[in-house]
Design brief:
Elements (H helix, E strand, L loop, with lengths): L1 E7 L2 E7 L1 H13 L3 E7 L1
Antiparallel strand pairs: 1-2, 1-3
Length: 42
Protein backbone atom coordinates (compact mmCIF):
# COMPACT_ATOMS: atom_id res chain seq x y z
CA UNK A 1 0.00 0.00 0.00
CA UNK A 2 1.07 3.57 -0.69
CA UNK A 3 -0.10 6.68 1.14
CA UNK A 4 -0.47 9.69 -1.18
CA UNK A 5 -0.99 13.15 0.33
CA UNK A 6 -1.83 16.15 -1.82
CA UNK A 7 -3.29 19.63 -1.79
CA UNK A 8 -6.11 20.71 -4.09
CA UNK A 9 -7.98 24.01 -3.95
CA UNK A 10 -6.71 24.75 -0.45
CA UNK A 11 -7.68 21.36 0.98
CA UNK A 12 -5.19 18.75 2.11
CA UNK A 13 -6.29 15.27 1.13
CA UNK A 14 -4.84 11.79 1.44
CA UNK A 15 -5.55 8.37 0.05
CA UNK A 16 -4.13 4.88 0.48
CA UNK A 17 -3.87 2.86 -2.71
CA UNK A 18 -2.28 -0.46 -3.72
CA UNK A 19 1.35 -0.25 -4.90
CA UNK A 20 0.50 -1.26 -8.48
CA UNK A 21 -2.00 1.64 -8.76
CA UNK A 22 -0.01 4.36 -6.96
CA UNK A 23 1.77 5.85 -9.96
CA UNK A 24 -1.44 6.03 -11.99
CA UNK A 25 -3.34 7.64 -9.09
CA UNK A 26 -0.57 10.19 -8.54
CA UNK A 27 -0.76 11.21 -12.21
CA UNK A 28 -4.57 11.47 -11.99
CA UNK A 29 -4.31 13.79 -8.98
CA UNK A 30 -1.77 16.00 -10.76
CA UNK A 31 -3.90 16.17 -13.92
CA UNK A 32 -6.84 17.37 -11.82
CA UNK A 33 -4.70 20.23 -10.51
CA UNK A 34 -3.59 18.71 -7.22
CA UNK A 35 -0.06 19.08 -5.90
CA UNK A 36 1.32 15.85 -4.42
CA UNK A 37 3.54 16.72 -1.47
CA UNK A 38 4.05 13.32 0.08
CA UNK A 39 3.89 9.67 -0.88
CA UNK A 40 5.26 6.74 1.07
CA UNK A 41 5.05 3.01 0.92
CA UNK A 42 3.31 1.54 3.94
Amino acid sequence: MVLICWEHRGQRLQETVPVHRARHRRLEVEQLGGVVYWSERL
